[in-house]
Predict the structure.
Amino acid sequence: MTGPDPADTGGVQALDPQELGAYFALMESVSLLHHHVEQHLRTEGNLSYVQFQLLARLAGSDGQLTMTQLADGVVYSRSGLTYQAGLLEKAGLITRGPSSDDERATLVTITDNGRALVDRVLPGHVQDVRRLLFDPLSDDDLQHLGDIMTRVRDHMRAQPPRSAAPRKRRPSPNS
Amino acid sequence: MTGPDPADTGGVQALDPQELGAYFALMESVSLLHHHVEQHLRTEGNLSYVQFQLLARLAGSDGQLTMTQLADGVVYSRSGLTYQAGLLEKAGLITRGPSSDDERATLVTITDNGRALVDRVLPGHVQDVRRLLFDPLSDDDLQHLGDIMTRVRDHMRAQPPRSAAPRKRRPSPNS
DNA sequence: TCTATATGTTTCAACTTCGAAGCAAGTGAG
DNA sequence: CTCACTTGCTTCGAAGTTGAAACATATAGA
């Protein structure tokens, strides 16, 4: 009498202990890192992690991006971005204006204040990441981690997008 | 005339390109994975990732945990857990009752329906993780990833906790 | 050109998350 | 025992996040 094997998930190859361990450790580490970093950003610059990401991304990119480019870069919903952009604009950290290329697009531009704020919080942020993430890693580990995660990211990006889930599928024509 | 070096962050050693790449790839990969997995769980079992984590954690652990144990395991605020537990209880997936050990504690127990649901969505979940995370990795990569992230997690856990930030520090006696 | 559809963004309502405050039960010192 | 403090959880209000719907502009095809 062989009761249901806990590792038997109905024909799908279950994750072996090594995979499980890697998966859990990965998710939890990032979650912890996110929490820590968020706290620091909040106390040092009154910014959420998302807001920091948006500003940092703009500070690169020559200071200008469309809403969609920003949302995609941060893996974020478009409506959520509209909200955050509103806050950042009210705080004087960014500016929103029409694009000359495409009348529909909103061009987001980082202001001098925005850049200054990024410059102000970046050192602490870097220190955090260094302390939390890189301290326990050797140069070799770092090399591997970067290589592995880059491959994983590219692989996932190749999958269908998600920030703007493909528009409502056109109602199938056979109705 | 040495203008401000972009890598000069005010005395703090900036992250070199390799570190930056690893950091960004890590955060984005997990973010993407989270999004994908969340979608699948929602369509297959009408569960959020958090809810799935809670049920899965309970399904291990002999089916019973206190609220605090659950919150700590999932890196979640206590009040948020109360909310989710309410939903899961309403859905008949868990049960809440007093603990005999400690009258204050609430003992959360997974129901048969809860177990059944976990069993139902787990294969798909595993398939997702396998497809998104492990597919592009060699056995060697997997080994490294698990090793690295385990070390990182343990390192972070050694830092002060976060699920229940230390209670309001008792007002220092010299006031 | 006219029309259908695609794309960029915002609005809106529902849901989720968080922290602070509140309540109840445990614990230790006197 | 009693007081002060700790710990486990919930309640409450404010803020953040999301998907669907609404708009507006673009684009392609007839």
